[in-house]
Amino acid sequence: MRNQSPQRPWVENGARLDRRPAAARRLSETWRKCKACGGWSRTTQPRSTFFKHALSVCIVAALTLSPPRLWGQDTPARAREADPYNPAAVTADTTPPRPSVIYTQSNAPATSALDDLPLRGSVSQYGITWTFAQPARVGQFINGDWYVVGPVTITALEPRPLYGSEIPAGELDHMDLERPEAQRVRNGFMLNPPAQMKVAYDSGVRNWFDPALIQKLPVAMKPGDSLVSTISMPKGLVLHAQLRNKIERGVDDSSPIRTAAVLTCVAAPQPSDAFRPGFCDRAQKIYLARHLQRDRLPALAAPPSIPRIAQYVRFTQRPWVGTCFFGFEEPVENMPQYGLEYGRVVGISALLLCTDLKPEQKEPLLVNLVQVGIDLGGMVRAGHPGWTGFGGHGSGRKLPIVFAGLLLGDDQLARINESFPKVSFGEDEQTAYGPGWTGAKVVFAGHSGIDTATGAGRSRGNGWGPYEHQPPSQWKAGQNTSESYRRCCTSVGWVAQALALRLLHAEAAWHHDPFFDYVDRWMFEADAAFVKTIKAETGRDHDHDWSRQGQAWDTFVNVMWAKYRSTLAAPTNGWQQPHDDSYYRNAIALMERQR
Predict the structure, then answer these.
(1) What are the residues whose beta carbons fall under 8 Å from the beta carbon of 252, sequence distance 6 or more?
(2) Cα–Cα distance between 62 and 70 in angstroms, integer?
(3) What gap in Å lies between CA 14 and CA 87, rounded to an integer?
(4) DSSP letter string over 523-569?
(5) Span 53-77, pLDDT tens digits
(6) DSSP labels, 239-272
(7) Do residues 140 and 148 make contact, with C-beta atoms less than 8 angstroms apart?
(8) What backbone torsions phi and psi does residue 50 show, to the nearest 5 degrees?
(9) Which of 391, 401, 395 is nearest to 427 (CA)?
């Protein structure tokens, strides 16, 4: 029976406490996870756009929990299925382990002389090999990624990029077939990927593929350059993604990219504690691990439900090179495939770093999470517009940036909202102080939230903007969709983030208080009566373990919340207190005028 008291500790003592809903656990084994809407679907027909899909029957299936059809019932037989993130795969990973040295100002490493670096004809990482025209001096950043002292020319890549007719006909998916043969590519690469929503790694990428960006060997690299190389997903391979989702090339909105790695060209050797500069950062700002302010991390007693830290080290180890949206081009073996899981992974990673694990246990995860933040921050600095409120898709990017800024002492990153006030983050665009129909003073601002750049609620022609100021009796299809996304695909992924940020005393740096009060509302507001009202007025049933307030889907998060949230100085009832809600009211007015 569902525990309806968010303050009551979850029983552990060896019991298997998977707070992810039983229905979702069952469905994840039998249905495909639809990344576009966060729901479950057996739909296999191609779609020309995400927007058409977002209004398709998969939303209804996801939110009403229609009886599932068996996985594979309507699709060709699969060659194989793999989980690159399970414990066995993590244990079997052949990536050389990184030293567990914790570099500080007192034991900062010396920088090698150029002649002391190894002279190599090629380097390899994550199944990708870069071959140089002439042997070159190479080294590794603290996260294990390679750099080469340039200039240098790449003459060969493995796996070999394929173009046009080189791609076997049996490997072409429906996206490939919509393109001219000359625009087809596999195992593609991009020198200096733009901080924009366009890529050319694989012609199976939906929406964001730009054939004008296709590049071919040789590649001349100079200091300041970054080369992102990929391995494409073969047809028939089904990969488990991080925490949830199964990905198969050409099926629904799956990414066709399996793996990515980054090679960086520098002017001189780097110290052993240097982070890789952001792959979109042409200024090539170098951060050093010796400057990490590890004393900012609390050391709270970890509960028995703490996940294996090695799992989260693996989740964050490979570069998260997604510059686009909806996960259409995110490498499956590198990063989460949906914003909800993006938020869950970074939130849990940050929480793990707030426990009393030994420093040497934390260090690899700390380095990885900071590296993710450096990459995301580098994208924003290079002009990326951010990640808008759009269902669950826009979640998870802000925390790594703020976290990296706090730990590195970089105020521009730590206060990313103030540094770049027009950049979008889903958590902020979808939370606001406003008059909620339940009596709450902070609301979910809708499936598409409030546009950071304009201050207007985003309807997107579907009624997906602010809605919680209206009672359910006034909700139409778009408002019902927003409520469903509030419960299925956003709030449950924000709990760990909010708690970790509070534990780090990062509320001021985050610079959006409604987010914290909204998460408190999600965890403390009793919603049993409200769920009944919604069902009576709209016919939508949200009375499922996975969609009810007062919980996240991860046991560790629930236990940490129950144990530590009430110990913090911040009041737990801010969601019930009056606030200036003019921003929300203005957003509604602007949205109405734009219709």
Answers:
(1) 32, 34, 35, 36, 41, 43, 44
(2) 15
(3) 19
(4) HHS--HHHHHHHHHHH-----STTTSSS--S-HHHHHHHHHHGGGSS
(5) 333 323 333 333 332 222 222 334 4
(6) EE-SSS-EEETTSTT---EEEEEEEEEESS---T
(7) no
(8) -65, -40
(9) 395
Q: In the numeric block, which tokens belong to residue 405?
A: 């800024």
Q: Contact, 327 vs 393, CB < 8 A?
A: yes
How big is the chain by its Cα radius of gyration, in Å? 23
Tokens 């009211």 correspond to 585
How far from the centroid of its chain's Cα atoms is residue 440's Cα?
Answer: 29
Cα(242)–Cα(250) distance, rounded to whole angstroms? 19
Amino acid at 178: E
Give residue 93's pLDDT: 79
Per-residue tokens: 592: 């109405």
Instruction: Say if residues 6 and 521 touch (Cβ distance below 8 Å).
Output: no
Cis peptide before 471 (omega within 30 of 0): no
Cβ atoms of residues 176 and 204 within 8 Å: yes
Q: Contact, 424 vs 387, CB < 8 A? A: yes
- Are 249 and 256 spatial neighbours (Cβ–Cβ below 8 Å)? yes
* CA–CA dist 348, 365 (Å, integer): 11
- pLDDT per residue as tens digits for the range 205-233: 999 999 999 999 999 999 999 999 999 99
Helix (H, G, I), strand (E, B) or coil at 153: strand
Per-residue model confidence as pLDDT tens digits over 460-473: 999 999 999 999 99
